[in-house]
Amino acid sequence: RKEYVDLYVNYVFNESVQKPFQDFMRGFLRGCPASIWKMFLPVELQAVLQGHTTVDWHLLEKNVVYQLYNKSDKTIKDFWNVFHELPEEKKKMFLGFLSGSDRVSGYRLESFTFFIVDPQAKNPDELYPFASTCSLIFYLPR
Question: Which UniProt keywords apply (predicted)?
Fold first, then answer.
C-alpha cells in the first residue's frame, strides 16, 4: 500500500503536471530569460512576480498626494479615520478598487503613490467615490 500511495502521489504532483509545466516554463522563459532572474533571491523574485502581500497602511497614507484637498480637511481626516478602523480584508478591497489589484507591485512598496481628488460636484451627496485605476486616482466627494 505504501508503494502504491507513493507512486500515486508522485504521479499526481509530478508526472501529471510535467508537460503543462514544461509548456509554461518554455513560454515564460521566452519572454523573461532565466539569466535575468538569477540576480534575485527567492523572496525578492516572489515579491517581483506576485507583489507584496502585506502593506504598511500608514506608509500608504503618508504617500498620498492631495488635489483640491489639504491633509487637514475634515473629509480627508474622516476618510483616514474610517480607513484605519477597517479590517485588513476591507483595506485590501479598497486597494483593489483603487489600483485593480489587492497587492502593491514588488518594486513600488515604499514609493506607491496615489491621488485623492475632490471631483468638485455641485451636490457631493449625489456622487459616490470612484477611482481611475490606471492613474491611481481616488475621487472622494466632500
Answer: Ligase, Transferase, Ubl conjugation pathway
Question: What are the phi and psi torsion angles at 132 (to 5°)?
Answer: -110, 100
pLDDT tens, 34-93? 777 778 888 877 777 777 777 888 888 888 999 999 899 999 999 999 999 999 999 999
Instruction: For domain 57-139, give the CATH number.
Output: 3.30.2410.10
Domain ranges of the chain: 1-39, 57-139
| Nearest in space to 94 (alpha carbons), one of 48, 46, 140 | 140
The cell numbers describing 98, all together, are 483603487
Catalytically annotated residues? 134
